[in-house]
Amino acid sequence: MASTAVRPPGGTWFDTVQRSFVNVPIDTNNNNAISTSEFLEAAESLASLFDVLGSVAFTPVKSDMHGNIKKIRDRQLAAPAQSETLQALVVNELKTKKHTAAEGLLWLVRYSQALTARSGIMSLILVLSGLDFTAQGLRHNVTSPSEELSTSFRTAYASTLKPHHSFLVKPVFSAAMSATPYRTDFYNKLAADQERGQQELRVWLDALEKQVAILKQFQERKEAKW
Q1: Of 125, 110, 123, 122, the residue nearest 165 (C-alpha)
Q2: Region class of 26: left (phi > 0), else alpha (psi between -120 and 50), else beta
Q3: CA nearest to 214, candidates 50, 86, 79, 61
Q4: Are 225 and 105 in contact (CB under 8 A)?
Q5: What are the Cα distances from residue 49, in Å, to 77, 88, 89, 131?
Q6: In 16-175, where do the E strands start and end?
Q7: 31: phi then psi, degrees, rounded to nearest 5
Q8: Nearest in space to 54 (alpha carbons), one of 154, 145, 184
Q9: Burial of 81 (0-12, 13-18, 19+ CB in 10 A)
Q10: Cβ atoms of residues 138 and 209 within 8 Å
Q11: What DSSP assignment string belongs to 96-141?
Q12: Cα 212 to the chain's mean position, in Å?
C-alpha cells in the first residue's frame, strides 16, 4: 500500500505519486492492453488523493480501493505469466471458472459485505468503478469553475456507483459527498501554483479517462464475459 505523502513546498500532489496514469504503458498494437503492475501503482497513488480531500468520511472508500487493488495484485502474483496486462488477467481468470469472478461480473460495482472472497476480476471491476467515479467527479469540477466539489462528486456518484450500492452503503458515500472541502481549499492543497496544478490535473485526468474507457470497452467484449 502506498504511503500518504505530503505535497512538497511549491509543488503539486502529482509530485508525490509513485506512478501517474500518464506513465502507464498501453500497447496499442495489442488491443490497447494495459500493463497490470504500472496500472496498480497508479491506482494506489490515486487512493492518496482522498487524503487531499481531507475527510475521514472517505476512509472506507480509500480502504476498499486498497483492498481491491490487493486482490488484483494477489491474482497477478499467483499467475504472473498470465497477468502481464489487465485484459489478460481477466481473460485467464475467467478460464478458471471461479464463482466469485462470475458473481463479480454480474453485480459489477456493488460493494457488498457478504462478498468476502472477491476474485481478481471482481476487484478490477470495483477498482475501475471507483476510478470512473473519481475521474467523472474531477472532470465535472474542472469544466465547471464555479461548482463546488460536493456537487461535482454527487453528480458523478449518481451515474457510476449509486445505482449498484445497497441501502447500507449509500449513506457512507452520502456522508463523504457532504464532507468534501470547499473548491478553493482543495485546489490549494493540490498545488501551490494553481495554474500548474490545473494543467497537471487535466493531463492526469486525460490519461485516467482514457484507461477507464479502454477497460469499459473491454468489459463488453465476448472474451471478458462468462
Answers
A1: 110
A2: beta
A3: 86
A4: yes
A5: 26, 28, 26, 11
A6: 26-27, 33-34
A7: 55, 40
A8: 184
A9: exposed
A10: no
A11: TT-HHHHHHHHHTT---TT--S--HHHHHHHHHHHHHHHHHHHHHH
A12: 9
C-alpha cell at 159: 451515474
Strand-pair partners of 12: 191
One-letter amino acid at 205 equals L
Q: Tens of pLDDT along the chain (226 residues)? A: 444 557 888 899 999 999 999 999 999 999 999 999 999 899 889 888 888 887 676 777 777 777 778 878 888 898 899 989 988 988 888 888 763 332 332 232 233 332 333 456 666 666 777 888 889 999 999 999 999 999 999 999 898 878 777 788 788 788 888 888 899 999 999 999 999 999 999 999 999 999 988 988 888 888 877 6
Segments of the chain assigned E as strands:
26-27, 33-34
User: The C-alpha cell of 173 is what?
Assistant: 458515500
Q: Which grid cell is 54?
A: 481531507
The label of the residue with cell 497508479 reads 42
Residue 45, C-beta contacts closer than 8 angstroms, at least 6 positions apart: 2, 17, 18, 19, 20
